[in-house]
Amino acid sequence: MTKVAWVFPGQGSQSVGMGRDLYDNVGAACAVFDQADKALGFPISRLCFEGPEEELRQTSNTQPALVAASLACLEAARSLNADKLPAPAFVAGHSLGEYTALAVAGVFDMATAVKLARERGRLMHEAGKARPGGMAAIIGLEEAMLAEVCRQTDTCLANINCPGQIVISGAAENITKAMELAKAKGASRIIPLQVSGAFHSPLMQPAVSGMAEFTASLSFLKPKIPVIANTTAQPLTIAAAIRDELLNQLVNPVQWQRSIEYMIAEGVDTFLEIGPGKVLAGLIRRINKDVKTINIGDLEAIKSLANPSP
Description:
The protein has helices at residues 20-25, 27-40, 44-50, 53-56, 59-81, 97-104, 110-130, 143-153, 172-184, 205-215, 239-251, 256-265, 279-287, 299-303; strands at 4-8, 88-93, 133-139, 156-162, 165-171, 189-192, 227-228, 235-236, 270-274, 292-296. The chain is α/β, with parallel strands linked by helices. The chain has 2 domains: 4-129 and 202-306, Malonyl-Coenzyme A Acyl Carrier Protein, domain 2, CATH 3.40.366.10; 133-192, Alpha-Beta Plaits, CATH 3.30.70.250.
């Protein structure tokens, strides 16, 4: 018996044009984008479909845009192929994607999800301006060795994505030192990331207080589906824990590898990546090559859901 998890992408999976084919062809997806535009008070849909890329890449735009596009993918799949969409035992999202996962689990509605994502992006961008920092993907170093690099350079692990691929975060001058030290210790590749700050590090602390204030008036419901938390790689099953998770994940690493390993240990053998790009499927295959990954990020992929390729 197949056991499925739904996973949702984070920042970096966006691209100009995302969701346009869904908006033009599927009423349910069109409704999601229209709701997002209304909730935000400006046409985030147009930014998704037409760009410009530089504007879409701004953190305060990227984050709600990805939530809207991912939820539009899901609603399109439910509309066109509901009988072929396997129900999830768990949901999870990478960083920002956790907000999409929480909306899908019924913790808050779609309008709240995009507003939360917009505010999260704004606060992270402001924190990045106040305390400039950066991030870099380090390929080919074990976690323990990279943790030592971070200790020596006053940086920190930000995204533990899969074996041999970890993102570090920190102040701009420290990231440069960390990249040099990682290279000296044998990293096979180092990729500076195009982000506006040191996400998932203590430099994001100003965003925590802002997010705490923004969420104080919101009521979160108990998840209808267990949500695997970024910071603990354990299920979120009560509403009280969710607010803490949303604040903690701003300044702590995304435990993506451990999240996937937890779900596999719980019997998940198929991961459905819902939303733009194929980043998560690639990471999951590096974590465990025996599980199945399916992407639905556009109309063609949704239509082929009935006959997914192995």
